[in-house]
What does this fold into?
Amino acid sequence: GAVVSQHPSWVICKSGTSVKIECRSLDFQATTMFWYRQFPKQSLMLMATSNEGSKATYEQGVEKDKFLINHASLTLSTLTVTSAHPEDSSFYICSARLDRGSSPLHFGNGTRLTVT
Amino acid sequence: QKEVEQNSGPLSVPEGAIASLNCTYSDRGSQSFFWYRQYSGKSPELIMSIYSNGDKEDGRFTAQLNKASQYVSLLIRDSQPSDSATYLCAVNWQAGTALIFGKGTTLSVSS
It folds into this structure.
């Protein structure tokens, strides 16, 4: 089955610093990856769609200059949280699907970000 | 605005019982439907996919889809304490796009 690897699993950083999260598709190529965020006891909210070789598409209300997404290859997308603040503390999860259709998304293990 | 609605619960059932989880969606043109299970602190894992009207069974799980009513359900037979988790209904409204998730239903199975 499709495997999506995400790193790191958890990170603690100080307010004002930047954090990079990596998402890799291990056994398939993903032209598109999706980044979600989940606050405690809430559902997954789509942040952005990461497209290989082009700019990411951000959802309404997500600051593109704060959440930098780079999808430089068919197996790697990165999310950088710049100038992190405590309100950015959340569970960030990347996902991808095997095709360009309507098949399910396969999720990475997620990254728990805590900003102090 | 495309929406997916679920009863947040908690839904409590005794071990061995049938748990019934429901979901409605707003976009009549939605193409595919999924149920994910999420344990606390973990990422979602896929348990069922359904694409056409009717029932789809996989072990103890049965997904039901009624596109006319814009309704998806998940039945879990012989519920086990290990089934205690949050169940997320997800809908894909267009090929190649992200899934839209409901808020999830928390299931608690007591032994």
User: Anything to note?
Assistant: The two ends of chain B are 41 Å apart (CA to CA). DSSP finds no helices and eleven strands in chain B. The first strand of chain B starts at residue 4 and ends at 6. The interface with chain A takes residues 31-32, 34, 41-46, 49, 51, 88, 90, 92, 94-104 of chain B (CB under 8 Å).
